Amino acid sequence: MKNDWVLILGSSTGHGASIARSLAKEGYGVIGFHFDRGPLKKEAEAFCKELSALNNNRTIFWNENAASQETIDKRITEIKKLVGENRIKLLMHSIAFGSTTNFFEPAPVRQNQMDMTLHVMANCIIYWTQALLKNDLIGSGTRILGLTSEGSYKAMSGYGPVGVAKAALEAVVRQVGWELGHLGITANTIQAGITPTRALTKISENWEEWVDKTKERNPMKRVTTPEDVAGVVSLLLDEKANFVNCSTIYCDGGEHRSL
Fold this sequence. Notes:
Number of helices: 8
CATH class: Alpha Beta
CATH superfamily: NAD(P)-binding Rossmann-like Domain
Helix content: 40-55%
Strand order of the largest sheet: 3-2-1-4-5-6-7
Oligomer: single chain
Strand content: 15-25%
Distance between the termini: 44 Å
Structural class: alpha/beta
Low-confidence stretches: none
Shape: globular
Radius of gyration: 18 Å
């Protein structure tokens, strides 16, 4: 049983959930943040219990806005108590919440939509890292990871603010790795391919068409799964990956190389 803990921002569904399940099976303690209401809240609670059964009750979920400075300030002391003398092995940013709209039509994107999307999907990882570092919760061997997409460098309908946020996330994570590398802390982004998750259904009504086209153009003739991404995260936690830093790792079967 590993003594290390992982902190996952966006832990209840999609990539975050798959990563949480994979690492709980490996024995990591899991601290997860999600922001669900109604039936989705109950699903998240059930998922938390599932993980607890896998890692000897070393799972805690908080149904709160992980991008809020108030939440960071509120929970950092509790995280320190949970971790004890150990450190956070992984800070995983998997929050998929932003404005899915265009810049001009059918309605111009508003400044508050842009600001919110950038903060939630990119900038908040800075403030989490600052808090963890200040409280001596991260150090040599810690991984900081974010999830990016082709939208960081390609334009597509309904992806304007999110595309900007993904590009910003890559820049943020790259800078974090550059500044903290001397401490043995590495930071990278993982670019997943089109993945049929709940987040994808929020981007476009034509998401099923996206999936079909992806299967055609992907060299491996299938879409990416959350389990694929969880596998890459697990690999990056190994000490053999200690020198991988300030990079984007592609987990898409070669999708980004195809038209």
